[in-house]
Design goal:
Layout: H1 3-61, E1 66-76, E2 82-92, E3 108-114, E4 120-125, E5 135-141, H2 148-163
Antiparallel strand pairs: 1-2, 2-3, 3-4, 4-5
Helix pairs in contact: 1-2
Length: about 170
């Protein structure tokens, strides 16, 4: 091999290896940020979101309604990577036989943390047995924006749609 060819090939391989190294470092940084986000969400879930849901739920109970809070510790993809964690508050308005509720017609609000988004997403449903309604995304925000006032506002928004529908 000629000296010029070897030199050119070495330069190409050096550039390629540098790009590989930079890509690997970037992937490790992203993974680290995603893991930190999930840890922060889990802390917020316990200290802020669950606490606010329980306070509202306990107030609902004083008026004859019921609620249940479910946490999904981790969802994993096909490769076994954690993709999100969530917390859901199911609401059971009084006056409706509890046996009529199914996962598809139980009013709820869910705070979920998809690691790739690094934002907390809120989904809500006001669908109840023998009543039409809607379900879907409501909002999303950064972890550092999460406080009890925000959680209360989101939960109250779903409760308003359940107890005082505008349709």
């Amino acid at each position: 091999m000629k000296k010029e060819v070897k030199s050119h090939l070495d330069a190409l391989m050096d550039k390629y290896e540098q790009r590989l190294k930079e890509a690997k470092n970037k992937q490790e940084q992203i993974k680290s940020e995603e893991e930190a986000f999930l840890r922060e969400f889990k802390r917020l879930r316990e200290e802020v979101i669950r606490t606010s849901m329980e306070e509202i739920g306990n107030q609902l109970k004083t008026r004859g309604h019921d609620y249940r809070i479910l946490e999904t510790e981790e969802s994993v993809d096909g490769e076994g990577k954690v993709i999100n964690a969530e917390i859901t508050m199911n609401i059971f308005p009084s006056g409706i036989d509890r046996s009529l509720y199914t996962p598809q017609n139980t009013p709820s609000i869910t705070f979920t943390a998809p690691r790739y988004k690094k934002r907390i997403c809120v989904e809500g449903s006001n669908i109840m047995p023998k009543r039409e309604g809607a379900a879907g995304p409501r909002s999303e925000f950064k972890a550092e924006e999460t406080n009890s006032a925000l959680v209360e506002r989101e939960v109250l928004g779903v409760l308003e749609e359940i107890f005082d529908p505008k349709w």
